[in-house]
């Protein structure tokens, strides 16, 4: 199988690339190595994939339709796994137009090319953010998600809707995967697990929004990756599927884990929790279990320890 994988240099994308290559698939990576965080990290993420003869990399922007068209015409992939995107919630409040260009227009560019070149199966990354601030848990795919609380969530929901339209009108098989706070080796440095650990490590205060009691359905990256691969193996007409751990921990749990790993206490700067930050995320994963045989297996202790091993060895740099 030949998979066009967007966002292949990113945190989740680079793990998906390695998992596909490990089982003998061909991977055509597309990434623009933007500087939302240090692109040196993205180069490092791809170190292993780049040694594999079945991996080809294009340093291309999703917003460039002609460039994508040239790649797809040349490579003729069997499937598209679309993980590229602008991912930070707070950054989306600063640059909403950029989020629309990349997450909506960029996604439609790919859907359109899938239609024109007869690529029948499209898997894309959506987000638990589309559930907004709801406190009715666990979040189910049937829940109403018409009130995205920030531009990031709105663009992810818009991309899901475009996916529906392309499946309905043009007969593509489209699956949108709603990821829940993914963490692990190669973690994005703007995410809580990284920020907490790095602040304690450098003896600077953690800027904590709220009192640390907010709960997240933290999902270990290799569990998420198994769900992505299962989706690539199982085309459906159109499905939205939660990929979470279905087991929540508080932000304070991660701060305590980081304190223990680093052997020193956190300094905490308590800030008001902005409205864009939900109090809880919690995935109902019964659909993922049913359709994908998805089962997250990594405990919080094991997941944090694997994150921390990476952090010590190379995650501090860059
Ligand atoms: N990490 C999480 O907890 C999480 C949760 C929910 C959803 N997601 C979604 O999963 C996907 C992957 O997230 P991640 O955490 O690996 O983020 P990431 O930022 O590490 O990876 C995204 C990659 O996309 C690339 N990219 C961004 N804009 C691009 C463009 N215009 N053209 C080409 N490439 C571009 C970036 O360079 C980056 O390498 C994203 O779509 C994100 O919205 C992530």
UniProtKB/TrEMBL annotation:
<keyword id="KW-0456">Lyase</keyword>
<dbReference type="InterPro" id="IPR036291">
    <property type="entry name" value="NAD(P)-bd_dom_sf"/>
</dbReference>
<feature type="domain" description="NAD(P)-binding">
    <location>
        <begin position="4"/>
        <end position="305"/>
    </location>
</feature>
<keyword id="KW-0520">NAD</keyword>
<protein>
    <submittedName>
        <fullName>GDP-mannose 4,6-dehydratase</fullName>
        <ecNumber>4.2.1.47</ecNumber>
    </submittedName>
</protein>
<dbReference type="InterPro" id="IPR016040">
    <property type="entry name" value="NAD(P)-bd_dom"/>
</dbReference>
<dbReference type="Pfam" id="PF16363">
    <property type="entry name" value="GDP_Man_Dehyd"/>
</dbReference>
<dbReference type="GO" id="GO:0008446">
    <property type="term" value="F:GDP-mannose 4,6-dehydratase activity"/>
</dbReference>
């Amino acid at each position: 199988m030949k998979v066009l994988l967007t966002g292949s240099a990113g945190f989740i994308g680079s793990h998906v690339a390695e998992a596909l290559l490990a089982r003998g698939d061909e991977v055509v990576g597309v990434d623009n190595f933007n500087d939302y965080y240090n692109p040196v990290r993205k180069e490092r993420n791809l170190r292993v994939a780049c040694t594999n003869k079945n991996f080809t990399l294009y340093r291309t922007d999703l917003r460039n339709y002609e460039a994508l068209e040239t790649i797809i015409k040349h490579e003729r992939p069997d499937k598209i796994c679309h993980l590229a995107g602008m991912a930070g919630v707070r950054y989306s409040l600063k640059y909403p137009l950029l989020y629309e260009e990349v997450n909506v227009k960029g996604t439609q560019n790919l859907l359109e090319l899938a239609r024109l070149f007869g690529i029948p199966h499209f898997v894309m990354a959506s987000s638990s953010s589309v559930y907004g601030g709801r406190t009715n848990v666990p979040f189910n795919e049937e829940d109403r998600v018409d009130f995205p609380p920030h531009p990031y969530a709105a663009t992810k929901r818009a991309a899901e809707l475009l996916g529906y339209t392309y499946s309905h009108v043009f007969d593509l098989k489209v699956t949108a995967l709603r990821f829940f706070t993914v963490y692990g080796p190669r973690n994005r440095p703007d995410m809580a697990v990284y920020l907490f650990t790095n602040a304690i490590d450098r003896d600077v205060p953690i800027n904590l929004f709220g009192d640390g009691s907010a709960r997240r359905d933290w999902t270990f990256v290799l569990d998420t990756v198994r769900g992505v691969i299962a989706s690539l193996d199982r085309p459906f007409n159109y499905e939205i599927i939660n990929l979470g751990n279905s087991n929540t921990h508080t932000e304070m749990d991660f701060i305590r884990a980081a304190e223990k790993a680093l052997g020193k206490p956190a300094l905490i700067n308590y800030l008001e929790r902005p409205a864009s930050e939900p109090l809880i995320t919690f995935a109902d994963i019964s659909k993922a279990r049913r359709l994908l045989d998805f089962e997250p297996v990594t405990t919080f202790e094991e997941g944090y320890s694997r994150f921390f091993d990476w952090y010590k060895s190379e995650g501090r740099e860059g």
